[in-house]
Every structure is written in C-alpha cells, then in structure tokens.
C-alpha cells in the first residue's frame, strides 16, 4: 500500500480532478452548449452524437449541459457546507477542548446525539421540516451533521495542544484565553483540518447527490443526483443517462479522496 | 462480576437510555415542525371543513402539543408507535414489522459480502506487504471507497442483469437468495474497502509481534502461521462494527432499496416522508436510531467485558 501511496505522491491525479471540477463549476454554465432545462421532446433519450456529445435525457435535455450546470451546484453546496462546518466545528471544538468540564460535556453530548442518527436519516429529517426544500435548506441539512467531524478533530487536537509548553507559556504570561486559542491553538489545527476538509468536500458532494437521487434535492436546480435518478428509472432502455451522471459523481468523489490522501502524506509529519 | 464491571455496564446502559429519550423528543419536535397540513395532504383540497375537522380529531391533531407529546410517549412505550395516517387500521409498528426482515436480511448479506472480500484480501495484502498483491488490494480499496452506491447499483444491474442476464432485475421476484446478491454488493463494497484496510493494518501489526517470529523459528509453515497464529488475533479489532460502518450500512439500505425496488425500512420511510404520514416517519427515524444506538451499546459492552482496559477510560 505504501508503494501505491508513493506513486500517488508523484502524480497528484486527485489535484488534477479537483482543479478540473472547480474550473467546470465556475465556467461550466457558460460553456454548456444547451440550456439544461430546454425541452426537446423529438430528441428524448438519444445516444451520444455530434450534436449531443453525451446524449439526451428526460424531455430531450442535453446531458453534457446538465452535467456542467450540476457541477456548479455540487461545487457551491460542497464549499458552503464544508466552510460552515469547518468554521463552526473548529470554534466549538476548540472551546470544548480548551476549557474541558461543562463546555466539553455539552459539545460532546450534542455531537453524540447528532451521531446517533445515520447521517442521511438526519438529513432527510431536517429536509422534512420544509414543504419545498431549496438550496439553502439542503445546505442547512448537510451542515447539521457536517460540523461534528471537525469539532471532534479540533477538540482532540486542542486537548493535546493545551498541555504543550508554548501554550502554557502564553498562558503564564497572562494572555487571555481567546487570544491563546486564536494565536497558538487554532493555527496548529489548520493542517489536520485542511486534510479533513478535502475529504469532507467529497463526502458532502456525495451526500448532495444522494439526497437529490432520493428526490429530496433543491427543486429546480440541475443536480447530478437527480439526473442519476432519472437515468436509473430508464436504465434498462437508455443506460447512458445513468452512466454519465453517476460517472461524474464517482470521478469527483475519487478526486477528493485521492487529494485528501496526497495532502495527508505531505502535511502530516507523523507519516513521514 | 466485579463491581467495576457492574458500574461500567450500568453507566453505559444509562447513557444509551438517555440517548434514546433524547432521540424520541427530538423526533417529536422535528416532525411537528413539518410544514404542510397532514389533514389536507390526506384528504386533498376538495374536502369540506367538517370532514377535515373530523379527521383532525381522529388523529389527535386538535389537542395541545403537550398532550400530543404525552400520548406520543405512550405510543412509543407500548410499542405500537401510533397509527398510520394513511392506513388507519394499521399501527406503525405492524407496518414496520412487515418490512423490517427485508432490511435486516439485506444488511446482514451486505456485511457478509464485505467480510468475504475484506478478510482474505487484507490478509494477503499484509502477508505480501509492498508487493503486487498489496498494491492491487490498495487500489481496489481506493476505488471501492470512491464509487458511490447510487452509481454502483445501476452499474451492477447493467452488467449482471442486462448484459450477462445472470441475476434478476429490479422489480423481479424477490423470493430467491439470488435477488439479494446485487443489492448486497452495492452496500457491501464501500464496507469491504474499509475492512480491507483495517484487516491489513491489524495483520501487519500482529505479524511484527515476537510470538510470530517465535512460531516461525519453530518451523511453523507459513499458511498455518498466517491463518492460525496471525489472522485469529488480527481479527479481534476488525470484528467490531464501528459506528461509522453501521451508519453506512443503514444509509446504504435506504438507497439500495430504492435502486432495486425492494420493500424495506428505507422504502417505507421515503414513502411516508413524501405522503406526510407523520407517525410512520417518526417511527422509522426512531427505529433506525435505536438500532444504531443499540448495536453500538452491545459492541461497547462486549468490549468492556472482554478487555478490562476499556472500563478504565
């Protein structure tokens, strides 16, 4: 396994995929050849051709255009959910780890309760709170359990950092707690957090796809998961819809996983 | 039983009970906050006000929230979990009892698939660490983790159902065990990837122990050495179903039941969600959460009994 890792270290395939994903998320809707919602009933479920490189789907929509628009949705959901989760999780986890006692019990207790639901069941339960789930609701639903991972990580690292000499020294010099945390604890958390967040992006993008696949995604937006759902319902006759939309999800998740492994090898000194 | 062990068991049980009560309350609150009137969802907008009021009374929705909470707790405690909005003659538990076996069998089959793949693969990878087998196992694990089950399911159907025609398609007869194979692989693949890595790591750890070198020096042949001396000890930590894996297993059944059009807890849950059948939604969330908490409790207790070090922390 270490040999594979060594090879991956030289060719960061994950980095290539991740960069391509964000680039397409940024410019995708502009370079898309068709409107992904344009109805063209004469050309429904056509196999890939010169006019439609990846074929057409339900109502004759152009799959390539839908995937390019879906990349933007996946990127937005991924970045916002992970951003909110990392910020919230780090703040709460550092606080719990630094002060211990009651804050620690409260945070750990809530984290345990959140994790007592399988993630997807909790997401669905939260989405059930609104009649017509939109993008914002999806983001909230995913952030509700997203923060826990980062809070646990920040808490664990803070627990050990708290006992280190430089933190003790800062405290002994009379530095207020919030400054000790901001200047001496949080900067030392960044490495592990970045590694976790990279893998976390893949997890969130997959979760968004899964919820959309189950029919719980944001109504109007074009989503990879919703496209895969359509593709699965016509799988036996028109497999290309499911193949391409699912392939986009799988490739993106693979990219973030590889990128996370690669970063871990580079940033985590314990593995050298 | 020693007093320390008893105290550990009691504490762990109390915590699990608290978690379940917390979950019950959260489920109640979450579900009351669902917008959209269930009465209108059931009767449609054509119904007259009297008809609506009657159903509202029948469903206890006209009573104050505190009363609803108490009767909800009563329903949970007596095991019926209330009555379905859509099928007034069925208790929620009886609906779940009908489909639960499908989900449990599917989850166990997925676990079995994961085990059958992961243990040999992980053991071989560890025995040949750094060589071709190891690298192949590692690459397989990376792919297994990256491939989403929402895509793997359709791919398997295309390959084994449509092209090769070896296995039944979604919607076909569920009677035979062959209808379980593809759904179980769909869920089990990611699990197998995680378990392969764990088995490999545990095996490498065990193989570096002195008693292995001692056995080797005594001339124990390599296959019995691997199987009897190393693997048996390496499997103990791998045996535990981690919380994350159990979550993946349960989430996996929701997705897989949809792909393969199988009955089960996930299908019941999603149907009830879209129909706003509130008692069934809360029953499903609760049962899934209780399974989750319960399995974690059993695993923790087993560990506490087997390994005294766990009790101290």
Write a brief structural summary:
The complex is a heterodimer of chains A (272) and B (313). With 272 residues, chain A is mostly helical. Chain A has ten helices and no strands.
Secondary-structure blueprint:
The complex is a heterodimer of chains A (272) and B (313).
Chain A: H1 2-10, H2 13-31, H3 63-99, H4 101-114, H5 119-127, H6 135-162, H7 165-172, H8 177-213, H9 224-233, H10 240-267
Chain B: H1 3-32, H2 38-43, H3 49-58, H4 65-77, H5 92-127, H6 132-146, H7 149-163, H8 178-207, H9 210-217, H10 222-239, H11 243-259, H12 265-275, H13 278-306, H14 308-312
How does this structure look, described?
The complex is a heterodimer of chains A (272) and B (313). Chain A is built from ten helices and no strands. Chain A is 73% helix and 0% strand. Chain A has 272 residues and is mostly helical. Chain A has helices at 2-10, 13-31, 63-99, 101-114, 119-127, 135-162, 165-172, 177-213, 224-233, 240-267. The longest helix of chain B has 36 residues, at 92-127. The radius of gyration of chain B is 24 Å and the shape is flat. With 313 residues, chain B is an all-alpha fold. Chains A and B meet through helix 1, helix 5, helix 8, helix 9 and helix 10 of A and helix 1, helix 6, helix 7, helix 11 and helix 12 of B.
